[in-house]
Amino acid sequence: MDPIRNPYAPGAGQRPPELAGRDEQLAAFEVVLERVAKGRPERSLVLTGLRGVGKTVLLNALRGAAVRKGWGTGKLEARPGQGLRRPLSSALHQAVRELGHRDEESLDHVLGVVKSFAQRDAGSGAKIRDQWSPGIDAPAVRGRADSGDIEIDLVELFTDLGGLAADVGKGVGVFIDEMQDLGADDVSALCAACHELSQSGLPVIVVGAGLPHLPAVLSASKSYSERLFRYQRIDRLSREAADRALEAPAAEEDAAYEPDALAAMYDATGGYPYFIQAYGKAVWDLAPRSPITAADVAVAAPEAESELAVGFFGSRYERATPGERDYLMAMADVAVEQDEADGDAVLSSDVAARLGKKPQSLSPARDSLLKKGLVYSGERGRIAFTVPHFGRYLRERG
């Protein structure tokens, strides 16, 4: 089949041609946008799930919905060891610009507060090159969001931002990807700011996305975070949604799948959105004609698996040290021995026993893998892969 017309799009955060299986989340967010803009109470939102389930794609889709409502939006990606002030200031600068507030005095005040919040990161006596600002012409507002206490400053910043949005009858959405990588102080400040917003009724919401242990990260920071956010677990697609993700783009190109081919695709991909796109692309390129058959899927499977082995699994495996790779392999072996489903959490003590070592001696390797985002711990004493089918990849690798 013509590779130029291949409709599938495997890529990190790249929106697929058919965003299947997320209608419920999109519809619920439309309600949130309307309620918040009208000053009605609504919780901020947190999306959680493994890598490859489409969290970033959905986060971007939710942001797009907010933009269509005339909201001001800003997005940032949290990174380990990076403070919140600078990336958040850049995101909020964009959000303020999108709001289109016509009162220049009010606009300059809020932009000045954003600038003040950003520059406080440099500290007193910093050199000119360190006096960073996100391209804001307005002068910094002294005495507002610049105390140096991130919790106090973020509450003040969001309060002023919410007031500006309320003036025009709109809202502001702050979209944070990889939210689990925020520092402890920044997480605490973000929770406190969201708590203040929920009490004041100001039209500002935070929409975060992260790995499955993100709720535990938030709860460890502020006990009330369990009531502060609406948590949505983003998982693999149902059979019906997976079929739609394949059939709808193909139909746009006057192509189709035989029923047995769709069944074979679901068996191969497990319903994970990234895998669906990867297999879809490979099958399309290698299938001689439409309709695509189960035999076409079988022929293309090695090509898709090779692509995933290099780009999806391999790139993560290469980030691990030899000792960390031993730990990962032991996790995969323990899951098989205990007949756990691929991706289920296993006991850290069982991993240590498999390696013939004491759990305490493996803490450095485990902590490093956590920081690298290769594993996560949803509950004390247990560990799991952040990537679906990673254990299978390790076992096949040998």
TrEMBL record:
Keyword field: Heme, Iron, Metal-binding
The keyword Nucleotide-binding is annotated on this UniProt entry: no
All residue ranges annotated as the Cytochrome c domain in the record: 166-317
Superkingdom: Bacteria
Entry-linked InterPro entries: AAA_16, Cyt_c-like_dom, P-loop_NTPase
Coiled coil recorded as keyword: no
A Pfam family annotated for this UniProt entry: AAA_16
Membrane spanning stretches: none
Protein name: ATPase
Organism: Nocardioides flavus
High-level lineage: Bacteria, Bacillati, Actinomycetota, Actinomycetes, Propionibacteriales
